Amino acid sequence: MLEVARALRLQAALPLDLRGHCVLTTNHLINKLPTAILASLTPYVVLLGHKPDYSMLRVFGCLAFAANPERIKDKMGA
Q1: Which one, 44, 46, 63, 78, has the greatest CB density within 10 A?
Q2: Domain assignment of residue 38, given as a range
Q3: 78: exposed, middle or buried (C-beta count within 10 Å: 0-12, 13-18, 19+)?
Q4: pTM for this one?
């Protein structure tokens, strides 16, 4: 698990202080991927009995901008 988390962090060029998020994301992904130990089933299917929804998966470490629409807009403001 740590090898996958390390690979995620290095591929996304994230700082070391975000390693916890990398480990949590790795755990989430591993639980939704098929494994040979479970005869090509996912741990998610074995535990809950139905297939996981993959529509929420996104690129890890992508660029994002925060917006605060309630901020007073000023030409010289930050």
Answers
A1: 44
A2: 1-78
A3: exposed
A4: 0.68
